[in-house]
Amino acid sequence: MASKGSSMSFSRKSYRLTSDAEKSRVTGIVQEKLLNDYLHRIFSSPEHAPTAATSRKPLNFQNLPEHLDQLLHVDNEDEESQGQVEGRLGPSTVVLDHTGGFEGLLLVDDDLLGVIGHSNFGTIRSTTCVYKGKWVYEVLISSQGLMQIGWCTINCRFNQEEGVGDTHNSYAYDGNRVRKWNVTTTNYGKAWAAGDIVSCLIDLDDGTLSFCLNGVSLGTAFENLSRGLGMAYFPAISLSFKESVAFNFGSRPLRYPVAGYRPLQDPPRADLVRAQKLLGCFRAVLSVELDPVEGRLVEKDSSEWQLQGQPTVLLTLAHIFHRFAPLLRKVYLVEAVLMSFLRGVVEAGTPAQAQSMVRQILDLLWLFMEDYEVQDCLKQLMMSLLRLYRFSPIVPDLSLQIHYLQLTIAILRHEKSRKFLLSNVLFDVLRSVVFFYIKSPLRVEEAGLQELIPTTWWPHRSSREGKDSKDVKDETTEEHRRRRAYERGCQRLKKRIEVVEELQVQILKLLLNNKDDNGGEASRYIFLTKFRKFLQENASGRGNMPMLCPPEYMVCFLHRLISALRYYWDEYKASNPRASFSEEAYIPPQVFYNGKVDYFDLQRLGGLLSHLRKTLKDDLASKANILIDPLELQAATMDDLDEDEEPAPAAAQRPMQALAMGGVLPLPRPSWLSSPTLGRANRFLSTAAVSLMTPRRPLTTSEKVKVRTLSAEQRTREDIEGSHWNEGLLLGRPPEEPEQPLTENSLLEVLDGAVMMYNLSVHQQLGKMVGVSDDVNEYAVALRDTEDKLRRCPKRRKDILAELTKSQKVFSEKLDHLSRRLAWVHATVYSQEKMLDIYWLLRVCLRTVEHGDRTGSLFAFMPEFYLSVAINSYSALKNYFGPVHSMEELPGYEETLTRLAAILAKHFADTRIVGTDIRDSLMQALASYVCYPHSLRAVERIPEEQRIAMVRSLLAPYEQRPWAQTNWILVRLWRGCGFGYRYTRLPHLLKTKPEDANLPSLQKPCPSTLLQQHMADLLREGPDVAPSFLNSVLNQLNWAFSEFIGMIQEIQQAAERLERNFVDSRQLKVCATCFDLSVSLLRVLEMTITLVPEIFLDWARPTSEMLLRRLAQLLNQVLNRVTAERNLFDRVVTLRLPGLESVDHYPILVAVTGILVRLLVHGPASGTERATSVLLADPCFQLRSICYLLGQPEPPAPGTVLPAPDRKRFSLQSYTDYISVEELAQVEQMLAHLTSASAQAAAASLPTSEEDLCPICYAHPISAVFQPCGHKSCKACINQHLMNNKDCFFCKATIVSVEDWEKAASTSTTSSAA
């Protein structure tokens, strides 16, 4: 039979059940005796033994209704009670009391059974209480945080600090802290985990209260409960912020019923009995076949049953479903009867047999039941399936999850059911993404991981890049054996998980089917509409937890979606040779500006979409033949003006805003439960599609297309895939794009959504899961330290040995648990296949950015997240998947590194990109890129013109962009070449704490001489490049060091207060950052002087003298502040405050020394003379500061040998591991030179009167006069001022020129005039 119910000519109305005498003749195809035997076989009563054929009443379709009434009759005692039950007070349908029985702010689900904490410690109770008898209810733990579950009386009063169990007559179990609560607390039970079922039992006959966890009793928790007049107990819970549970008072079958205890809500017993009897009749139909030729009944296996259109069988089924259909709309019966039956079908046969059987059953449901009945039944069935899949325990072979997924696949293979579920249930009512998630077992022993992975192992050292690693060759034989056994166990686990993953991919393949468009829209296009809404809700609801799909679900969904997407992509390529393979996939740039795909309010590279369409409308017309409707441009403008307004209907849909004073809230349908209406339904920025104004003939390249917008629901298959005159999603193809199609347009939209998913939450979750590996490393270090202490501990200290042995056991047990959990994480999140998926996404983004870049100004339409995903996916591949998998093993690794390097180098200063966040991300990514040898070599492999353009952008004046990140990039190109600049750990920390393995670690130096040469060439290139660059560097150095000094003054003052001192950690962090910036800026100056010394020393250049004077001034300022005896800097360094570890003499003094050595030792004789004169002429110069570098308190006498340094004083000679002998000799040479030059300058200097000193700096004599105003200063001050301002210091007149001024010349001129 066809899977589509509508393909049959029968309908329920065709089988209107009557007692017409003609009925038997019309349908009596089989003989009367055979019909009688058949109906008795189908509708036999299970309570009575089968009677002889002669004694039973003949059955036919005339008296079958009467027989069915008798068969389905239920005794009075089995009828569902409609009144009050003894021992229970309240409504018969038990739910949470969201009108008055709560405290704090809570979010309650639509069915009033699920609750999420939305305040500190909210409490809620049920609507029904009990005062006599034995009662039970179940709580499904959705999150494993702080909760207290139990019972309370109506007189209990709770608040934001005290909940269930904290008052008299309230009792609670807390599986988070493993305690029981009744005013006081004691240890009880065991820890719960997400997915556990807690059964809460109360026996008011004996006055006891107990709990069960997953059906296992935890023992009696409380005895001697208060009973009697006025004492009745309500189910209640208190839960902290963002914790969630779901109650089952009996509306669904209890997962773990307890003998003798009754659920608070009575099950529909009568209906349950009827449904089970009708299911028995239906089973009989499936297992009996009519043989009219032989006139007998044939027993056969139900899996082989086929509906062949026999009227007798159809009429029999019509009678069954006439009574069965209303029952199948009830939640309890669907889960207790239909779900159990379908699970049996799946578990009994092969997957093919189960799918065939389920398909026929669904055909019968659609055939004999009204549409609304089938729809309600399917909705409840899928909700039950999802709940069972999500919360079933993890068993070693994952059989429970496999059976639930197989049943889901069998249901979704039915076309009509699949389309209904896609359109109305999977994304609207259910969190269907759960079907693609494989939860991590929190209890290793219950998941059977001990049997799968009997031998545990963990790495001895972290092998991430930049840290020491232990090679496999250094392993002992025992370590090697354990590692190999552990890897084999991991492979066994991975194979079992892959079975589940393949079933999940099959589900998505069914949802992405676009061949099932007979009589309606294909599944893929329904999926696209729902998928886009799902993305929109998660993009707009970031930060609002109830509205978000959990990131761990999103990770699994992404991987399954990529597998299904690539399957269909390559399948299309197989039938269309001109298309591209999935390995060459990318998103064409026209998708970003033609409006066919909705990007909501996500930021574009060039800003807001409305702004781009107004400013680039001419480019759209000339390059893409697209005209924007003027009415829509006007609507967009008006919408921007009304950005903060919201229509009343939208505001009414937001209950959380309506109850600002606190209270219990009906839970808004999350992103996976509903599609909330947008406040501005016709927002231009939220347009989902652009369609043509229906031209009647193909368009030529010169014709312009006026477009209008469509909502996502209005799009048709033609709007997406296009037709012979309409390119669909690819409308507006720029001339740079090829004409041949990549693949089906709908797959392009799925790919675009996959990239967006990675950006929304997948990357953050990948980083979060690395925490398991970090925990393993921490415990491994602790275990090794404990074992070392055990070996060193004297045998006579038995007390210490006992404690160490106990610690060793604890660490070993924890490592066994974590290593097995790590195996699960590696199999589900960090496997080789998952790594290839992320790598594929990276390459998709790279190709997309490259194609978009070719469109010129239209590149601004690309959403920012494409660049973000390119950056973040590379970071994930490099940092998260090691050490098990290495990025270097990926195919095309070198080429991919080079392409990403080219993108970062070109776009970090791209004027088409305006967003501050994305520009910072590009800058930080480039800074990280040049830290590592492999990626730095990739930067060096990009074309020369791109390298030069990148360095030119780095040398642009710092005031125009975030200068700190730019400076880090330049510094990293220099590390390894500077004076004493080859360390990977801060030397001063290693001297004070050599045994501390957790000290901050820097990357190994990997300087780039090629990029340094480009920098030197550009600085020599023009007269303005070097001065503007160095002026900004010197400005920033002055600012950073001044800020640093100001902050350490505040820190010192706080430390000296008698009262309890407290320094804000943020202030310490900012202080350390300013210090690090000062050091890095000094290193950039050192690099500049080394590469292009003539910028400072060739005074033929107009700005050289000014730059050298400014440099000398700043160097003297730094030296004086840092080297003064018992000064502010010394005192703060001595405090060793956490957060200021990097602040010390060594980093900053070696940077200053490197600059001085380059100026005074390595330069030409003329340059050395100029540098010396400028340095000594600065009034802040102190020779004592230079002596401090070598640990000498005072300058040595001329001709004497330098004494040995004082061990208690700072000296570069103490850091011989980091400073070479040659470098120390150069410092000594510099000191001798400055000592001699200083003595000569002191002997030759003449006193200067105060009148002749510069009125700005009071350090140098007046040497320049400004024209036309005639005011005077020294050349250094006016030249520095003119770098940034053209106005006079004194009168603010515009300075036209600056002339030399000498006092003698001025005096003679004045005398002549007199």
UniProtKB/TrEMBL annotation:
* Keywords per UniProt: Cytoplasm, Metal-binding, Methylation, Phosphoprotein, Transferase, Ubl conjugation, Ubl conjugation pathway, Zinc, Zinc-finger
Q: Which residues form the RING-type domain?
A: 1254-1292
The record's Pfam families line, in alphabetical order, gives: SPRY (PF00622), TPR_RNF123 (PF25576), zf-C3HC4_3 (PF13920)
The record's annotation in SUPFAM superfamilies points to: Concanavalin A-like lectins/glucanases (SSF49899), RING/U-box (SSF57850)
State the Gene Ontology terms under molecular function: ubiquitin protein ligase activity; zinc ion binding
Q: Which InterPro entries match?
A: B30.2/SPRY, B30.2/SPRY_sf, ConA-like_dom_sf, RNF123/RKP/RSPRY1, SPRY_dom, SPRY_RNF123, TPR_RNF123/RKP, Znf_RING
Instruction: Note down the stretches annotated as region Disordered.
Output: 460-484
Q: What GO terms describe the biological role, i.e. biological process, of this protein?
A: protein ubiquitination; proteolysis involved in protein catabolic process
Q: What is its main location?
A: cytoplasm
Cellular component (GO) terms are: cytoplasm
EC annotation from Swiss-Prot or TrEMBL: 2.3.2.27
Please name the pathway: Protein modification; protein ubiquitination
The compartments listed are: Cytoplasm
Compositionally biased residues, Basic and acidic residues: 462-484
Q: Which residues form the B30.2/SPRY domain?
A: 74-254
Q: What is this enzyme's catalytic activity, as reactions?
A: S-ubiquitinyl-[E2 ubiquitin-conjugating enzyme]-L-cysteine + [acceptor protein]-L-lysine = [E2 ubiquitin-conjugating enzyme]-L-cysteine + N(6)-ubiquitinyl-[acceptor protein]-L-lysine
On subunit structure and binding partners, the annotation says: Component of the KPC complex composed of RNF123/KPC1 and UBAC1/KPC2. Interacts with UBAC1 and CDKN1B via its N-terminal domain. Interacts with RIGI (via N-terminus) and IFIH1 (via N-terminus).
Under which name does UniProt file this protein? E3 ubiquitin-protein ligase RNF123
Q: Which organism is it from?
A: Panthera pardus
The taxonomic lineage of its organism, from the top, reads: Eukaryota, Metazoa, Chordata, Craniata, Vertebrata
